[in-house]
Specification:
alpha+beta; 2,3-Dihydroxybiphenyl 1,2-Dioxygenase, domain 1; 11-stranded mixed sheet; 5 helices; 11 strands
Length: about 180
């Protein structure tokens, strides 16, 4: 088997398509994105506070729970890097920070031809309940309780093609106008 054949092979019970994102949680987004930009050349970083009213339908472990976060996004090839700093309210990000400190908290996956609801239902059928859900600027997000099985949290999202990323609160490093 060639490496290309191996990379394209899947298991019969596979339902995830591609890894879309790696997310690091931190106590200080600004320091983290500067470090990633300076030390690794990752960036520029799109930074925005995610909070109501842009963030709705926020649930933690099935309970309506208001929360907010500062998030930063940058791309390396097709892979999105995200850095999140919890701001207000209980979240899986805050839980991770209290348990582990700064680090990789979740990975996000696409789910092929399935709908978001079908992929969410597939996780639940496999015993992985949602631990946090939200809608942010029209993008539906679901984090699944995969920590014991995968040693990290898995995330899926539904980001319709007609919903742009929008403008950040700021860029790091600052973008030329």
């Amino acid at each position: 088997m060639t490496p290309d054949e191996y990379w394209r092979s899947t298991l019969g019970n596979s339902f995830l398509d591609a890894t879309l994102q790696i997310c690091v949680v931190t106590h200080d987004v600004d320091a983290a994105v500067r470090r990633y930009a300076e030390r690794f050349g990752i960036g520029p970083w799109w930074v925005q506070d995610a909070k109501a009213p842009a963030m709705t339908e926020t649930k933690v472990r099935g309970v309506e729970t208001p929360f907010s976060m500062r998030l930063a996004l940058a791309w390396v090839g097709d892979l999105m890097w995200e850095i999140i700093q919890p701001l207000e309210g209980p979240t899986v990000y805050r839980d991770y920070l209290e348990r582990n400190g700064n680090g990789v908290q979740h990975a996000a996956f696409s789910y092929g031809a399935r709908s978001f609801e079908q992929a969410r239902a597939e996780f639940i059928a496999r015993g992985f309940e949602p631990v946090q859900e939200l809608t942010w600027n029209g993008v539906r997000v679901c984090y699944l309780d995969t920590l014991d099985a995968a040693h990290t949290t898995f995330e899926i999202w539904h980001w319709p093609d007609d919903i742009p990323l929008g403008e950040p609160d700021y860029w790091v490093p600052a973008m030329e106008e």
